[in-house]
Amino acid sequence: MGRCTRDDLEAVVEAAAWAPSVHNSQPWSFALDEDEIILRADTDRRLRAADPEGRELLLSCGAALFNVRTAIRATGCEPLVRMLPDPDRPALVARVRIGPAGAVEEETKMLREEIPRRRTHRAGFIPRPVPPRLLDLLVKEAEREGARLTPVRSVGAVRVLAALTSAAQDVQAQDRSFSLEMIRWGRPPGSRHRDGVPADAYPQQARRTYPHFAQRDYARGQGWGDRGDQPMATQTGVVALLTTGGDTRADWIQAGQALQAVLLHASAYGVCAAFHTQLLEFRHLRDFVREELCSPEFPQMVMRLGYPVRHTRGVRRTLPDVLEQA
Question: How does DSSP classify residue 235?
Fold first, then answer.
């Protein structure tokens, strides 16, 4: 089993749970089986209105899988991954066996340190441009994981994505099923829940950017949110699309791994991502984006990259909450 102990494997699971997920729903569970870590999708946490096919769920599990691989490598061992190993068990995302020991690269150490530091952003950015060399690095990291990250250079295309995001947000706000999901995952001030979106994870009054990308209304008119002044947070940032050549369950998991690789590398340079999944939660809007902006690839994530005014706190379920019996 290389040099990995039971404590090492539990630390890997704790790291995996810091992956991003829509509404911070954390739709995963883990188990340890001798020298293997088992990653399962927790379908009880799937967003049934927004994500009926489980695409976003598997993106989240893919991000958790990248964390597993990174944390194992940081112990000096090698992760040996079998993705979707049993067709009769669709919730079984991966089995990761601990391979031979080896040297730990500096990049692996850096990424491992960023896992609990990375934060999802839910506002505008300060007027500091993301360096082109960093964007080039993020593009290469996504490619290494089997996906494509494309910074959207066209001002017109950015306006289209912003308009579609706002339109999707407005439609979802009128839909009872979507609204109930928001109620489930939007946490009030002082909540002790270790999942969902805390009330201080977004500004009480977000500054509008141009073009403006609509944010989820977790406060639901209750006046929740961080009251800190953010006069500098007026920039949209770099809008980027994460795409894959296929659109199978394996592609969704691969996209999640690529997403987390991008996010951790960005975090190491102080850059955060804001996610805008609203338009991709409508099939016809997702098809439109694919045909007009991504053809022939499938859009898996719309995001904005930039420098935040400050980082928000993160909440995650504890190890006993996510670690089950094999």
Answer: B
